[in-house]
């Protein structure tokens, strides 16, 4: 029997957008920086991007592929509930398609030792897990962290009310950064004894282990009472008899308060790992809860607190595990801006993307308070944050190609010469880097391959002069409105160091032009086509949705 690939199927899965790689335009009036440095480690070149997050991820692809250490996203949960700042009730299949498109771009942006962290609830968690398996590879699944988001349940709750969210964690290549967590005061408080012998505080620990070794089956004699103790049944002592006697002589074995009991190990705090390995159970007392995050928001934006924020302590835990100071963090569903605020306080570089107007009403004011040192809540005190740094605000450029009044595709008149050169560099795979001394070098793809963009009609004489300047040991892609006096074939033979392309014809088939919104917003959903619904029934005769097919069949039942 042949193996069949595990995969999630849904109506419209085969449809993929041909995204336009837009350029990003900075708005200096919305960018914000501290008036002075607080420390030499201040980071100023963070990015806040306003616009559709799928287009924005595509816009970041050329510059940041393989450079993002951690992606944290808190996407709409698709629960059918209406929130103030999100329309969250998307049809299941469309939600999966929109998430798939974003996950594929995130996968490309992640560094080889990077990781993705997604918060989600039971409504879509298990579908999303299988979807991430497809995009990232099942072998790169790291963990399903359970975050205790509530500390109490309403007495009139029906059914079995949830008190947790999931955080799905995937690595890019199986070699993700995974730091240990600092020890808590509660953990250190276990070391409550101190002999004042210079070794510091200690606690008792087991001297026996499960592994049975004949060499470790002996008796330990209490030096005060003379009573000998064998290891418990089915266990052995943790070390050899000679080594154990050394521990006894050095008073590293504890025989009870009066010295009359069975042997126990003295485990000194100074000798244990100065950190703990993270687990998948995150309690609210360690990582915050929903009420805590709402209170944080109420302090930051008293007049209009964000409806569904995450607590800063939750993001602090994620970034502590997955990143180190200076690493780049990305959140493409920025919401209230918690990821950027926490990353900033922790000395990480960050990029956030948000389409909603709360980018301006919530995120920017919040970040300004962080930078000014006016945000006293969240993790500020625990990390010693005092302000500093800054960010640059960008928005997506409009579509490069638009139709004129006769319906002909033309270069968008909103583009100036600089923006056009940058856009064509991105479309052609060149790095935009205009030379200050060589007028025809707008970008490069290598040390000898360059691009030149102009809206002029170039004559044969101009092309000859350009070819002479470029020289035989370099090449130049010339993007122009037109060229005359020579055919394309003649130009290729006559000037082998030049490649001529006409704009906008050279890019018309590249992508979808004029499509500005791929957002996860129910208001933007297309109307269903009746003929498509007839061909691919969305539900079986009993009314069950046909969405999940793990074994390549015709579609199983999915509880709604």
TrEMBL record:
This is site-specific DNA-methyltransferase (adenine-specific). It holds the Pfam family N6_N4_Mtase. PROSITE patterns: N6_MTASE (PS00092). The keyword Methyltransferase applies. The keyword Translocase does not apply. GO terms for biological process: methylation. Residues 532-560 are annotated as: Disordered. Its EC number is 2.1.1.72. Coiled coil: none annotated. GO terms for molecular function: DNA binding; N-methyltransferase activity; site-specific DNA-methyltransferase (adenine-specific) activity. Belongs to the N(4)/N(6)-methyltransferase family. Residues 68-361 form the DNA methylase N-4/N-6 domain. Residues 532-543 have a biased composition (Basic and acidic residues). Keywords: Methyltransferase, S-adenosyl-L-methionine, Transferase. It catalyses: a 2'-deoxyadenosine in DNA + S-adenosyl-L-methionine = an N(6)-methyl-2'-deoxyadenosine in DNA + S-adenosyl-L-homocysteine + H(+).
């Amino acid at each position: 029997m042949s193996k069949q690939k595990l995969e999630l199927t849904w109506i419209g899965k085969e449809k993929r957008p041909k995204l336009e790689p837009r350029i990003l335009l900075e708005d200096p009036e919305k960018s914000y920086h501290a008036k002075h440095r607080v420390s030499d480690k201040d980071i100023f070149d963070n990015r806040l991007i306003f616009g559709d997050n799928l287009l924005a991820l595509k816009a970041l692809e050329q510059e940041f592929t393989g450079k993002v250490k951690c992606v944290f996203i808190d996407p709409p949960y698709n629960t059918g509930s209406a929130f103030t700042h999100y329309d969250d009730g998307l049809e299941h299949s469309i939600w999966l398609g929109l998430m798939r498109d974003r996950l594929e771009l995130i996968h490309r942006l992640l560094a080889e030792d990077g990781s993705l962290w997604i918060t989600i609830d039971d409504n879509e968690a298990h579908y999303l897990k299988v979807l991430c398996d497809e995009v990232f590879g099942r072998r790169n699944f790291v963990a399903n962290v359970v975050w205790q988001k509530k500390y109490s349940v309403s007495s009139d709750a029906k059914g079995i009310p949830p008190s947790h969210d999931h955080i799905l964690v995937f690595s890019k290549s199986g070699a993700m950064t995974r730091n240990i967590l600092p020890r808590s005061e509660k953990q250190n408080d276990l070391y409550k004894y101190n002999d004042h012998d210079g070794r510091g505080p200690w606690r008792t620990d087991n001297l026996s282990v499960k592994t049975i070794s004949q060499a470790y089956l002996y008796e330990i004699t209490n030096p005060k009472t003379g009573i000998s103790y064998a290891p418990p049944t089915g266990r052995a002592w943790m070390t050899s008899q000679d080594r154990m006697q050394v521990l006894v002589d050095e008073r590293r074995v504890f025989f009870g308060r009066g010295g009359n009991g069975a042997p126990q190990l003295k485990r000194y705090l100074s000798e244990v790992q100065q950190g703990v390995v993270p687990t998948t159970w995150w309690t609210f007392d360690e990582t915050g809860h929903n009420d805590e995050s709402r209170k944080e928001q109420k302090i930051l934006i008293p007049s209009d607190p964000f409806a569904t924020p995450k607590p800063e302590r939750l993001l602090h835990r994620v970034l502590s595990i997955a990143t180190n100071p200076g690493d780049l963090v990305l959140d493409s569903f920025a919401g209230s801006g918690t990821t950027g605020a926490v990353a900033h306080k922790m000395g990480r570089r960050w990029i956030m993307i948000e389409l909603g107007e709360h980018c301006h009403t919530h995120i920017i004011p919040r970040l300004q308070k962080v930078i000014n040192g006016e945000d006293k809540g969240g993790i500020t005190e625990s990390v010693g944050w005092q302000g500093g740094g800054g960010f640059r605000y960008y928005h997506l450029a409009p579509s490069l190609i638009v139709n004129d009044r006769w319906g002909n595709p033309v270069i968008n008149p909103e583009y100036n010469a600089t923006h056009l050169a940058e856009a064509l560099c991105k479309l052609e795979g060149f790095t935009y880097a205009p030379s200050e001394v060589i007028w025809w070098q707008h970008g490069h793809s290598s040390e000898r391959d360059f691009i030149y963009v102009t809206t002029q009609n170039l004559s044969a004489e101009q092309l000859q002069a350009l070819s002479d300047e470029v020289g035989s040991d370099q090449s130049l892609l010339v993007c122009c409105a037109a060229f005359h006096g020579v055919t394309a074939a003649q130009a290729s033979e006559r000037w082998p160091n030049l490649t001529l392309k006409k704009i906008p014809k050279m890019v018309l088939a590249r992508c979808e032009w004029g499509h500005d919104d791929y957002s996860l917003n129910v208001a933007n959903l297309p109307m269903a086509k009746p003929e498509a619904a007839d061909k691919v029934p969305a539900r079986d005769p009993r009314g069950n949705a046909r969405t999940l097919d793990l074994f390549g069949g015709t579609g199983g039942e999915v509880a709604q």
